[in-house]
Amino acid sequence: KPQTIPSTFPTLYPLYPILITMAEQLQASEENKEEEIVYKKLKKKESNFEENTKEKEMTIAVGKIADGIVAAVGAYASGGSLLPVLMNQIKETVVNVSWSTSEKNEDICEQFFEEGNYLFLLIKRETKTEKKGITGFKSTTVNIKANVKFFYAEAGNDAAVELLQKRATAEAQDAFQFIDSSEAGKWE
Asked: Vertex 156, ends 151 and 157: CA angle to 5°?
């Protein structure tokens, strides 16, 4: 059966089957084209926190720093609408890390992913102690500093959710590799 060719393309007749194939391939590639990654919010910020306290009241000072970090991340990253689960994760991360002076310069590096929201948190911490008074009546004052850097991304479409989920999955895979390694036995 002969093909019908539009009268406007008489000179393209020999190329018509090729053009049809190219058009079909282009349409198929457009349908299979990956969705562009869109974010509702992308924020990065750095903040500093400092507390001076007596050694006996160190947990109160760390709690204040944790509250400050949660408030800063919540206010700047999401305009005050940070998911409650992320706020709790941030606070737990800060509070449950040892802030003793023997571990004064270890960094806290965490990633959180929840409902299309991704948060990378890096806390460089420093504690210094100072003893004052005379023998038998000395008090120890602790200065706690935390430099906080964070990156917050809120997915705007499924492609962004997928990319952020891949990032979180990669972190989990790294954790499983560590757990399966010989070093994990040292946790006992």
From this structure: 125
* Structure tokens given for 128: 């210094």
For residue 151, give both structure tokens. Answer: 């990156």
Q: What are the residues facing 50 on neighbouring strands?
A: 145
* pLDDT tens readout for residues 67-102: 888 888 888 877 777 788 888 888 888 887 777 655
More confident residue, 3 or 182: 182
- Encode pLDDT of 102-158 as tens digits: 555 678 888 888 888 888 888 888 888 888 877 778 888 888 888 888 888 889 998
Decide the pairing of beta strands 117-132 and 107-114. Answer: antiparallel
Joined tokens for residue 7: 């009268």
**31-39 average pLDDT score:** 72
CA distance 184 to 173: 14
User: In this structure, are strands 117-132 and 139-155 parallel, antiparallel, or unpaired?
Assistant: antiparallel
Q: How far apart are CA 165 and CA 163, in angstroms?
A: 5
- Is residue 47 a contact partner of residue 145, using CB atoms and an 8 Å limit? no
C-alpha distance from residue 4 to each of 25, 34, 173 (Å):
21, 35, 58
CB 58 within 8 A of CB 144: yes
User: pTM for this structure?
Assistant: 0.67
Positions of E strands within 55-188: 107-114, 117-132, 139-155
